Amino acid sequence: MSVVETARQLTILGLVVVGCFFLTVGTIGLLRLPNVYNRMHATSKPTTLGTAAMFLAGFVQFGPGGAGLTSLVGIVFLFLTVPTGAHMIARAAQRVGVPFLEGVTWPTEDGGESGQTTGDVTNSDESDDSV
């Protein structure tokens, strides 16, 4: 086994360990955090990084052709869809009135704080339904 092959295997191992760590943190956050907004943050951010690390390990293992290319396409797809999905879930939760944690406020249209700490958030502009 050459030095290059050993370095490649250690890189793959490191990426898999990092991926497992982030996926575990995301899972723990999903189970322990109190409301939908915090849980959404815990599932979107760390799991995106963890899954991307796993895909990158696959790319290092298989090389730039075939399965390696599929890994890169998976990373691009992940980074395009997960933030969009998380944003849509947050907007839907806010619109149906899911309460925030105590002391959390939602910014108003003019940039100030609304002072609302409950889920009684109303949308003053009904034409903004094009989420």
From TrEMBL:
NCBIfam families: CPA3_mnhG_phaG
Name listed for the protein in its UniProt record: Multicomponent Na+:H+ antiporter subunit G
Keyword S-adenosyl-L-methionine assigned: no
Keyword Membrane: yes
InterPro entries: PhaG_MnhG_YufB
Region annotated Disordered, chain positions: 106-131
N-terminal signal peptide: none
Source organism, top-level taxon: Archaea
TM region(s), chain numbering: 12-33, 53-82
Alphabetical keyword list: Membrane, Transmembrane, Transmembrane helix
An MF annotation (GO) of this entry: sodium:proton antiporter activity
A Pfam family of this chain: PhaG_MnhG_YufB
